[in-house]
Amino acid sequence: MAQAAAVAKPPAPPRRRRASATPRRLPYLLIAPAALLMLGFIAYPVVSVFYYSLQEYNPTKPWRNGFTGLDNFVHAFTEDPLFWDTLVFSAKWVVVEVGLQLLFGLALALIVNQTFAGRALGRALVFSPWAVSGVLTSAIWVLLYNSQTGITRYLADVGIGSYGTSWLSDTSTVFPAAIVADLWRGVPFFAILILADLQSVSKDLYEAAEVDGAGRIKQFWHITLPHLKDAIVLSTLLRAVWEFNNVDLLYTLTGGGPAGVTTTLPLYIANTSVDAHNFGYASALTTVAFVILLFCSIVYLRLSKFGGEDK
Fold this sequence. Notes:
Layout: H1 2-7, H2 22-52, E1 55-56, E2 66-67, H3 71-78, H4 81-112, H5 119-127, H6 134-144, H7 151-157, H8 174-198, H9 203-211, H10 216-244, H11 248-253, H12 265-275, H13 279-304
Antiparallel strand pairs: 1-2
Helix pairs in contact: 2-13, 4-8, 4-10, 8-10, 12-13
């Protein structure tokens, strides 16, 4: 028995189970339906726009539909003065709006970041316009600019201006009026993002700066602004893209008028496709707008060194 036990072979080690690949693939399988839906809702419209930009496509004139190559783009750059007018106004609209929204948003964020009585209520009032849709915002300001019941009537009562004046129908006042209406809605966006980043600034930095004799202006310039750099770059880029594509507010507020002076490129695209049913040419204009936004975004991120460390 002892000899048999001595020569007995030791038990074989347990076999290692082969790791199943299913747990590793499970997260991808779970997000696959949502990813496919997003791909379908995003990729298909983008591809179709590029396709129709090379076509003459008007449902009301089917006998003229067909492949036209680059004719739509040639027409836009060489024969359509409205394209250049709307592109210039779009650039003007974006620069003025984003610049003013950034300045006022930064100022509001610095104010509500301080400690004072009723700060929670103040923050709620500052951020509330951002929850209002573009169409509702324009409806509110249409009532405010109404010549019979709006601001101009009350100003006329105190001797400023004349009765019956409509700022939205005058080419000299419609742009500032539209700017103010969109500022009311857009400033809270910057205030929210900047305030969120301000909360992460260490108080020790300001205390050390005070010990070194730095005043409020130097603290803002050398501590606050560098810390807010990425937040400002990201928020201005996002807001610039949104303002460039702004259709709802201007369409409801002015309709692109008077005399087309407030028509942006996206609004011109909407009128070309919806009103004129010229979907081929509208698709070409959309492609041009996409390329412009992509190029400007890349250049802006490169110049601002977004995400990098300042040397």
